[in-house]
Amino acid sequence: MPIYMIAFPEGFVKIGWAADCAQRLADGFGNNSHPPALCGKLTPPHFKLVGLWEGTRAEEEEIQTQMNEGKLLRKDNANEFYEASEQHKILRDLQTNFAALPFPEQLPPPGPLAKRSRACCRGWAHWCNHCGATFANNANRKRHLAHTPPACKRARLG
Description:
By secondary structure, the protein is α+β, with helices and mostly antiparallel strands. The protein contains six helices and seven strands. The strands form two sheets. A five-stranded antiparallel β-sheet has the order 4-2-1-3-5. The longest helix has 11 residues, at about 55-65.
């Protein structure tokens, strides 16, 4: 079950984990929170596979935590996307600590999940009415409201 890295020509890289990496890449990342510059560009052929490495979900989450300065989730909600300037650091860590896997020869067609999902947030912003935090998708806004951070609780009471 591989950890993958993909690169976008807009200046971002993404790392992630998937049980079926070829299918994950084929389905795209339209449901992920992402930098606004990638709106509408989260499906093939808008990105390039940089590498695959043998790893677990827990190991991938540890890499994300290290990249996010000790936190699994960042305030900007683009948690698995990093500026291209970070690519060499991430790549070095992956190549040093994990065994490389071969690339899939061809991606399968998008699965049923991708067909039901919209292509992207289309640049729409979702926000918290209490603290003003913005989110790339409504699922993240709902998660924020369900697990309210202290700053938002203070704004609700204030």
